[in-house]
Amino acid sequence: GQGFSRRCWDPIVDTLAADRDVIAVDLPGHGDSPRQPQGTGSAPHDLAVAVAELLDELGLPTAHVAGNSSGGWVALELGRLQRARTVTALDPAGLWRKSAPRHIRVAMRQARLTAKITRRVAPNAPRTRLGRGLSLMQASGHPFNLPYEPVKTAIHDMATAPGFRETLHALEKRQFEDGAAITVPVTVAFGSRDRVLLPKVARRRDQLPDQTRWVTLSECGHIP
């Protein structure tokens, strides 16, 4: 997702790896991945092209693809590029009309600023349950139950993502389109407690392919 890294997947990698070969990816400008090369776009489609190039390097024509938030949008774009065997988009961004709603633009900038301040003033925060809950109030369905390490990691990733500005600017001016080009199975899942992508403004279905399966994740927030 926007500002986060592949480490968001750590809680379920072992479960997936019991049955699959798992490739966890830092999108360009996130985690340990550098920004896109100069002159290359930073929109979700551009990030999907970068992931497709990684698949080429690994000798994989296709893969089962999953993504969360803006990563969910990238997963849908990989479906459009015919590089996915299946697409699972968890709380995907881009299902809005024309451009990102104002509250999302504001929330993302606030999350970045808060993370940078927290990391500078108290690098090992948030130690307390209250602090962890307040830090990920929007992202989690049960923010006050989160353990320390994942919250500390999330704050670090949000504060240090090298391509945060350009990827945010690129995605908030667009919407996901032409989903009919996706021919493989698609699952779109939203947490019942997603406080970021609200139902009436950010969950349009008209650009998704006809075979899309729509799922509600009970008790889950924006980052399930």
Write up this protein.
This protein has eight helices and four strands, in the order H-H-E-H-E-H-H-H-H-E-H-E. With 224 residues, it is an alpha/beta fold. The chain has a four-stranded parallel β-sheet, covered by helices on one side. Helix 2 packs across helix 3 and helix 4 (102-121) packs across helix 6. The mean pLDDT is 96.
Q: Helix tally?
A: 8
- Helix share bin: 25-40%
Q: Could you give the count of β-strands? A: 4
Query: What share of the residues does DSSP label as strand, in percent?
Result: 5-15%
Outline the low-pLDDT stretches.
none
Secondary structure: elements and pairs:
Layout: H1 10-17, H2 44-57, E1 63-68, H3 70-80, E2 84-90, H4 102-121, H5 129-135, H6 148-160, H7 164-172, E3 186-191, H8 199-202, E4 212-217
Parallel strand pairs: 1-2, 2-3, 3-4
Helix pairs in contact: 2-3, 4-6
Task: Give a short overview.
This protein is of the alpha/beta class and 224 residues long. It is built from eight helices and four strands; from the N terminus they run H-H-E-H-E-H-H-H-H-E-H-E. It has a four-stranded parallel sheet with strand order 1-2-3-4, covered by helices on one side.
Brief descriptors of the model:
38% helix, alpha/beta, 4 strands, 224 residues, 11% strand, globular
